[in-house]
Amino acid sequence: MLLEATRPARGVSGIWKNWLFALALGLLVCVSDIRLPGDAARARDGSEVETAQAGSAASESLIADIDDVRLIDASEADYIPPGEPALLPFDRIIHEAAGRYGLDPNLIAAVIMAESQFNPAAKSKKGAKGLMQIMPVTADALDMTNVYCPEENIDAGSRHLKWLMERFDGNIRLALAAYNAGLQNVITYKGIPPYPETQAYVVKVMGHYSAIKNASVAF
After folding, report:
1. Is residue 76 part of a domain?
2. How high is the pLDDT of residue 213?
3. Which of 90, 128, 165, 212 ranks highest by number of CB atoms within 10 Å?
4. What would the pLDDT profile of 133-190 be if each residue is shown by its tens digit?
5. In degrees rounded to 5, what are phi and psi of residue 129?
6. What CA–CA distance (Å, rounded) separates 216 from 83?
7. Domain annotation covers residue 123
8. Cβ–Cβ contacts within 10 Å for residue 205, how many?
9. What is the Cα–Cα distance from 190 to 184, expressed in whole angstroms?
10. Which residue segment(s) compose the domain that 49 sits in?
11. Residue of 50, 115, 151, 152 marked active site
12. Residue 87: what pLDDT?
């Protein structure tokens, strides 16, 4: 009788042991999945660092692209005439001078391109200065105060070109030859002087003139 009375007690004890083991196992599994605050912070920081590095790389790439564009020297790059001279440098000044002296703004732009490639600080070995390469003697005759000032230079060069065209009855080639070699030399030779530089100059300006008007040739 005594043995039979104690058997249920052993069964209950075994159940409790099994239940406690299962509970302990469950707690162990839960604890293993818990991240300490430091671990979570480190994981978050790592993610933020990766995101920041990616953003920084993209930013540096954009800045590099912008710098590449800004570092291009327009004076050395190939010049591609746009559809309208309104897109050329110093457009407003060129058109104002053209209106003032009754010249084609495309012709003024062509002369500037041949003379200085639109560099207002240009200076030749002979002493010609500015956008339209005004010689000191011409600058004095036209009462210029600052030959490197785009407004003054384009105004003076356009005024001089207009005067030459009037002397040659609107003949653009002879006016350009005189602009390069001097009025007296054109008069002496009764045409474009036989100077290779002057002959090449006239061809160059006329080529620029046609290209700007037609927007079809890169020079």
Report:
1. no
2. 87
3. 212
4. 999 999 999 899 999 999 999 999 999 999 999 999 999 999 999 999 999 999 999 9
5. -135, 150
6. 8
7. yes
8. 24
9. 10
10. 2-70
11. 115
12. 56
Is there a single domain that holds both residue 92 and residue 63? no
Active site residue 115: yes
Pair 102, 192: CB distance under 8 Å: no
How many residues would you count in the chain?
A: 219
Average pLDDT over residues 117-124: 94
Cβ neighbours for 54, distance < 8 A, ≥ 6 positions apart: none
Q: Please spell the DSSP secondary structure of 21-83, one letter per residue.
A: HHHHHHHHHHHHTPPPHHHHHHHHHHHHHHHHHHHHHHHHHHHHHHHHHHT--TTTSPP---S
The CA distance from 111 to 91, in Å, is: 14
- 150 and 208 in a single domain? The answer is yes
pTM confidence score: 0.60
Describe the crossing of helices 196-214 and 172-181 by its angle, rounded to 10 degrees: 130
What is the C-alpha to C-alpha distance for residues 31 and 186, in angstroms, rounded to an integer?
101
Cβ contacts of residue 156 below 8 Å, gap of 6+?
A: 132, 134, 138, 139, 142, 144, 147
Say whether pLDDT at 44 is over 60: no
